[in-house]
Amino acid sequence: MLVRSGVRGSVVPIVVLLLCSWLLVFRGHRQWGWFPSVEPPLPSVEIVVASRSTENTSWVHEYLPGWFRSIYVVDDPSAKLTVPQNKGREAMVYLTHIINSYDTLAETTVFVHASRFAWHNDDPDYDALSTLRNLKPDYVQASGYVNLRCVQILGCPVEIRPHDDAATQGERAPGISNSGRPLTTKEIYKQAFEELMPGVDAPKKVGVSCCSQFAVSRETVRSRPRKDYTRYRKWLLETPLQDDLSGRVFEYMWHIIFGKEAVFCPSAAECYCKLFGLCDLRCDEMQCDGRYILPKYSNLPDGWPRVGWSGEARNFSGPL
Fold this sequence. Notes:
The chain is built from twelve helices and nine strands. It has a domain at 45-152 and 211-273: Spore Coat Polysaccharide Biosynthesis Protein SpsA, Chain A (Alpha-Beta Complex). The protein is α/β, with parallel strands linked by helices and 320 residues long.
């Protein structure tokens, strides 16, 4: 018994020593690339949110728990995700995400604003959550790029005629006409397009539903090299145009950047059915009954969605 006990006592340290040596060698192999590293799987769907520090984005975490989330805070340099400079509104966020995540993009990336309830959300309650929950990623993959607005009010069938709308009076300052009047997106679009797309003729007509919220496939984003998006962001950082103008230039360029015709206005019925699964609606070419009403004001009333425009109670059944 004493002999066996002695053998057991001498074997255990040797086994431990061999195990530690093996682990060190194995770790060294991984560090030096002798064994292939295991990369985490890329997300299927990711939501990218352009926000300010004063905006509440908790709804994204609470109601879309299965989605990968990248929430950028444009006015907080210390935020986990932020931008080089707070210029160009949501375009700076979208471009920054594409540049930084080009090699690890989700299969489908959804680009949105921070507010859950906003006048431009294509929903009877102007609720982005309802829209996102109904989104069909398979259709995004098939189309490559989709606008999250199916209703064609505003932006379709034609919003800008770059050659006809271009400012002809010159500028006293960037974005300001010689008469002192601020120039519009229509008036500066042609020049901006030619700066962003050197060697490409500006289209004669541009039409797409507003308002810079869309979904795009990984393959479509990567159909352009990363350097293109870097060049677009450089333009955004350096342009003397005010944010509203530079941001709106991209609002009417994203669909072109992602390979669609300059006039991209699919029928409302097709869009609602294929993108959101709402296939039994009464529609004309531009809109469908009961889906969207253009409000008189850009700010929803206090208490929305349970309080209406005249202070009346609304029967809102969604989560809050």
